[in-house]
Design brief:
Order of helices and strands: HHHHHHH
Number of strands: 0
Structural class: mainly alpha
Strand content: under 5%
Mean pLDDT: 86
Low-confidence stretches: none
Number of helices: 7
C-alpha cells in the first residue's frame, strides 16, 4: 500500500504475494538427502565440473521454489527479450487477472455465516441493519 492506504498498486500486491510465497516455501524447510544433494554427482563431476547439464539437476530443480513473476533466465536471454523488469511483469499480470478472473461464488453456508456476523455486529453496535445483500 502506498500513501497510507489512499493509493493501492496491484502490481506491487502481486510482487508481495510472490515474495511471501517464496518465503513460505523456504520456511517450510527444504528436504535434504544424499539423493537431493546429488552427492554422487558431485563426486563424479568434481569441484570444477558442469552440474547444470546433468539429468539430476534438471530432475530436481523444479522441486524448488517456482516463482511466477521473477525472471530467472540467463542474462543474455533476458536481454534478448527486452530486459523486462519485475514491476512491469507484475503490473501486466495484475491487469490480466482483473480482466479475466471470475471467482467462484460463495457457498450458501458461507453466505449465511457472513450474514450472521454482520447482524450480530449490528446488534452489538446498536445500528440499523445494513441493506447489503449477501
Amino acid at each position: 500500500m502506498l500513501e497510507s492506504g489512499v493509493t493501492f498498486d496491484y502490481g506491487q500486491l502481486l510482487m508481495d504475494c510472490e515474495f511471501a510465497r517464496l518465503i513460505k516455501f523456504a520456511l517450510g524447510g527444504i528436504p535434504v538427502s544424499d539423493e537431493l544433494l546429488m552427492t554422487d554427482d558431485i563426486h563424479a563431476v568434481g569441484s570444477h565440473g558442469d552440474f547444470l547439464s546433468l539429468d539430476s539437476t534438471y530432475r530436481y530443480m523444479r522441486s524448488q521454489s517456482q516463482p511466477k513473476l521473477i525472471d530467472r533466465r540467463v542474462r543474455d536471454d533476458w536481454e534478448a527479450e527486452g530486459c523486462g523488469d519485475l514491476y512491469r511483469t507484475a503490473t501486466a499480470a495484475a491487469r490480466q487477472l482483473l480482466a479475466d478472473h471470475r471467482p467462484e461464488p460463495l457457498s450458501d453456508e458461507t453466505l449465511a455465516a457472513l450474514r450472521a456476523i454482520v447482524e450480530s455486529t449490528e446488534r452489538e453496535l446498536g445500528v440499523e441493519p445494513a441493506a447489503v445483500a449477501f
